[in-house]
Amino acid sequence: MTAHVIEEKHHARLSPSASKRWLTCPGSVRLIESLDITETPNKYAAEGTTAHEIHELALTAKGVAADHIGKKMTVDGFKFTVNEEMSDAVQVSLDYVQERIDEHEGWGYRVEIKVEVRASLKPLNIPGLDGGTSDVVLLVWDGDALVEIEVIDYKHGQGVAVEPEHNSQALCYALGVALEESTHITDQTNVRVTITQPRAIHTHGPIRTWEITAVDLNNWQVNELVPKANRTRDPDAELVPSDDGCRFCKAAGQCPALYNKTQEIAIADFAEDTFPDPKVMSAEQKRTILDHADMLRSFVVAVNNQVKLEMDHGSKDYDAGYKLVYKTVHRKFTEEGLDEDFSPLYDYLEPEELYEQKLRPLGDIEKALKNHMKPKEAKEVMNEVTEKPTPGIVAAPIEDKRKAVEPTMISDFTNLPD
Fold first, then answer.
1. At what angle do helices 43-61 and 84-106 cross, to 10 degrees?
2. pTM of this prediction?
3. Closest CA to 152 of 83, 59, 21, 82
């Protein structure tokens, strides 16, 4: 059985997906080019590409994600079979798209849906700033006037929750669409950025939205995008380390500015050769570490990857303390091993001996209940049979959207009798 091979997509020099980095750190573009870094295929990124393909296929065919369960795909050399988990995640985004269309049409507007939209920024005449491809764009029309542009960006990752607020990638897409539809945009045109990310834990749930006006979008173009994109072309463009910018930077392991920043944090702030015990550190020192925790982690990972690359190419510089070893892997079935047409397993085993039932997501179960009773009654049933465990507490930045909780040692003694 042949697998569907997804074509590789090439990214522009100033791609929207990397805009958070180059808008913050203009010197990173020239540094990456000078190092001539070859990007190594990543299984998680390839899985995300597979999920995006299912997202696109379902929208184009006006079907559901489950239509593609069992489909075999190959991305960057990695083979995937679309399963129920991937289907369920993609369907969350598909349902949102349909809900938005139904909502606008209910108000009497005409909705135009565009899938895998090429949002060109070439009219800005900045070399390398070509634009990119948006997953979904909804254009809401009132006659010839654009009421709203909504950019819907599907994220399959579960490690880092993506925020819609000031999301430069989505704003680039929205701007590309706005430039193409400029004759239909008014000062009242709304611009809506939506992130659908079903697998990441977020206090606001799997779908997050942020809105600005078309005027705000134009101001962002003039005051932020254009000058900072132009700055990346300057020979002396500065390198500016940051948690978000360095996280996925290909040059992080060889960046002098990031090295200096980590040295500043790790040594200069403590005036010691090693980190002190956290119990004796000052509050300011501990805040410094937490403020830059993501950047420090990114730097360590990047250096590890760089050392591995050098050793794999024959470097002996690290032989005194390091060696290359194979990662621990576990046995898994081949594609043919679970294919009913080819596998000998089915000659000896019944399906129930190979597979086990999986409980569907709570949201799907509640939705199914609503087919048998009123929504309010379904909610009452779900409340009766579910519980929400008390979570542990963590220290989070003040900008975090979750509500602050009272310290445990204080709350445990609140309201005690005198």
1. 40
2. 0.71
3. 59
